[in-house]
């Protein structure tokens, strides 16, 4: 099993009799990309750019091989790829968001999706579940139902145990090691958004949205620096609206403990054709800009991250 580094997507898996534990038996569900040595207190994360679709999963869905991709944050791992050469590790998913969403709580499940009752500890009332976008999503972009019938609960449990939990264990390990080595850590959670997104009633189409959970997941100086760097390149940048950050930003961002988390959303219209999933002429210029952005963000003085009140949480 192999992934293309360009427009091709991989559909893989030999048997519908397999289980979630075997869906990624050839290619792992995710990977940590590193340079020879971590030189900066930053960790990059690309949880939604995975494009390896197991045949077993495709056999369950009512969607065709194009429609099932509507939730992908296409090529975001490549757009931020320069961060690895600059000395920051990157955790990148191979599994697709339509299969499992690790930017959710581990048990945000819609009970209407499953043949058996969900566990009593499952969060069945979150806004994300109501919108069809729980840990095991019901919908892909544009509101398309993924499944024609209910799933066995064991399917959700298997994906959570075999992919979700190991993913977060890897991410926690990266953040914890970074914090221990440098005295602070910054997690940059990398995403993309549809070109149709507008800011409120203004009609303004943002090129980027920087999210910090309204100031609770990262130092304000860090958010302001990220916004300023992108704006200085000529991009239109929004802050927290309409995306303030998901579970990852909320869960890992603890500024008072010198753990910072930023979510960065990129408008897909800058770099790809959303209908064909092909990279556009702007892809490589954007990747160059994001390389400069990453380098400048990682060059922020330590006081951006350290001069904060230590508070009990």
Polypeptide structure, described:
Strand 9 (208-211), helix 6 (220-232) and strand 10 form a beta-alpha-beta unit. With 313 residues, the protein is of the alpha/beta class. It starts with 9 loop residues before the first strand and ends in a 7-residue tail after the last helix. It is built from nine helices and eleven strands. The strands form three sheets. Strands 2-5-3-8-11-9-10 form a seven-stranded mixed sheet, sandwiched between helices. It has a two-stranded parallel sheet with strand order 1-4.
User: Can you write the helix and strand succession as a string?
Assistant: EEEEHHHEHEEHEEHEHEHH
Low-confidence stretches: 1-5, 11-16
Tell me the overall shape.
globular
The Cα radius of gyration reads 19 Å
Number of helices: 9
Main-sheet strand order equals: 2-5-3-8-11-9-10
Helix content: 25-40%
Q: Count all strands and give the number.
A: 11
Instruction: Give the rounded overall mean pLDDT.
Output: 92
Strand content: 15-25%
The largest sheet is:
7 strands, mixed
What distance lies between the first and last C-alpha atoms, to the nearest angstrom?
45 Å
Provide the structure class.
Answer: alpha/beta
């Amino acid at each position: 099993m192999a992934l293309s580094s360009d427009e091709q997507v991989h559909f893989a898996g030999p048997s519908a009799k397999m289980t979630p534990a075997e869906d990624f038996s050839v290619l792992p569900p995710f990977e940590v990309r590193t340079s020879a040595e971590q030189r900066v207190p930053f960790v990059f994360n690309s949880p939604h750019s995975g494009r390896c679709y197991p045949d077993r999963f495709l056999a369950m869905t009512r969607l065709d091989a194009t429609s099932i991709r509507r939730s992908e944050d296409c090529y975001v791992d490549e757009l931020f790829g320069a961060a690895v050469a600059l000395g920051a590790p990157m955790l990148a998913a191979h599994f697709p968001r339509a299969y499992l969403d690790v930017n959710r709580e581990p048990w945000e499940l819609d009970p209407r999706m499953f043949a058996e009752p969900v566990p009593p500890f499952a969060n069945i009332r979150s806004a994300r579940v109501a919108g069809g976008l729980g840990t095991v999503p019901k919908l892909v972009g544009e509101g398309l139902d993924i499944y024609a019938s209910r799933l066995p609960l064991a399917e959700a449990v298997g994906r959570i145990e075999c992919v979700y939990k190991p993913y977060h264990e890897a991410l926690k390990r990266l953040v914890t090691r970074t914090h221990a080595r440098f005295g602070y850590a910054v997690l940059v959670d990398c995403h993309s958004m549809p070109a149709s997104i507008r800011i409120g009633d203004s009609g303004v189409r943002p090129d980027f949205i920087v999210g910090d959970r309204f100031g609770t997941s990262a130092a304000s100086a860090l958010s302001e620096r990220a916004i300023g760097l992108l704006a200085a390149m000529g991009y239109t940048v929004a802050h927290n609206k309409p995306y303030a950050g998901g579970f990852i930003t909320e869960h890992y961002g603890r500024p008072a403990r010198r753990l910072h988390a930023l979510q960065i959303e990129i408008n897909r219209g800058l770099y790809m054709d959303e209908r064909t999933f092909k990279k556009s002429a702007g892809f490589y210029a954007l990747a160059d800009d994001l390389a400069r952005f990453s380098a400048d963000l990682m060059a922020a003085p330590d006081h951006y991250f350290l001069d904060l009140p230590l508070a009990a949480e």
